[in-house]
Specification:
Length: about 110
């Protein structure tokens, strides 16, 4: 019995380690954006700084429904197309260019690039 319980705990640890906390957070925001409105969030994803597309996407295959507009004071074209980690305040009502994004991240700080 103890051996079986220990095996289950090891499996659980392996599953938890294989999941990125930031991507779980990103997925939770996609599923329930209202719960995160006005809150500080920390996520990682693929950042694009292009004409009418300044956003962070869950992954390279994501559309705007899995992306958040990024409101940064300074352009960061050096990060274009790269996976980055950022922190900021999520605004559900500001949906970015043509109101096509999940929301906007304001007061943005890049944590990792």
């Amino acid at each position: 019995m103890k051996l079986q319980l220990m095996g289950q705990m090891i499996c659980l640890l392996l599953v938890v380690q294989s999941c990125s906390f930031d991507n779980l957070n990103f997925t939770r925001i996609i599923e329930s954006p209202d719960k995160f409105d006005g809150k500080e969030i920390e996520i990682s994803g693929i950042y694009y700084d292009q004409f009418e597309n300044i956003a962070i996407y869950l992954n390279r295959n994501s559309g705007t429904g899995e992306a958040m507009w990024v409101d940064m004071l300074d352009a960061r074209v050096d990060l274009n197309g790269k996976r980055i980690k950022l922190k900021g305040r999520f605004n559900r009502n500001d949906k970015g260019h043509l109101r096509q994004y999940l929301g906007t991240i304001k007061e943005v700080k890049v944590i990792e690039n």
